Amino acid sequence: MAKLDLFKFVPFRLNRLGAEVSAALSSEYRARYGLDIPEWRVMATLGFRNEACSAQYIAQCTRTHKSTISRAVTSLLEHGLIERVENMQDRREFRLAMTSKGQALYEELIPRLLRREEEILSCLTAQERKEFARLLGKIEDSLDLVQASRPMSEVDAY
Fold it and tell me: Where does residue 39 rank: exposed (0-12), middle (13-18), buried (19+ CB within 10 A)?
């Protein structure tokens, strides 16, 4: 019977690496702002897009279960960091947007996260970072992962 060496198995390595990087970054927003990882994913997606979007899009973009995103949305709404806004094309639907309080938190946090990313990637040369980003893009492409700020369909609603 064949054995699987987990430490050479790329899916395991990517998952472990993702979990470690996520934990390292979460220390920046958990202690200072009280955000957990799903809440940050909502904030990061809204900040990246800089416009309202559905919770469904956030779940799709971040590959986070919709119930987890729903709980994060509820918490962020309660803390006044995001709000529901009407979809002007379909008034029955609501989208999510950051409030000014949420935007201020996001803008304060981004430089801290970028510095942390720099620390994490400091073991790579500039050329290796470029190649690493290119290769990650190829894998994301092959898995048909969202790689842009605009969803394919703007009709999904929360």
Answer: buried
Residue 3 lies in a domain: no
Per-residue pLDDT of the chain (158 residues; tens, 9 = 90+): 889 999 999 999 999 999 999 999 998 899 889 999 999 999 999 998 878 999 999 999 999 999 999 999 999 999 999 999 987 777 777 899 999 999 999 999 999 999 999 999 999 999 999 999 999 999 989 998 866 655 545 444 33
Question: Domain residues for 109?
Answer: 9-142
The Cα 44–Cα 119 span in angstroms is: 20
Does any domain span residue 99? yes
- What CATH number should be reported for the domain holding residue 28? 1.10.10.10
Residue 152 is assigned to a structural domain of this protein? no
In angstroms, the CA 43 to CA 109 distance is 11
d(CA 30, CA 26): 6
Q: How many domains does the chain have?
A: 1
- Asked whether 82 and 98 are in contact (CB, 8 A), the reply is yes
> Is there a domain that residue 153 lies in?
no
pTM over 0.70: yes
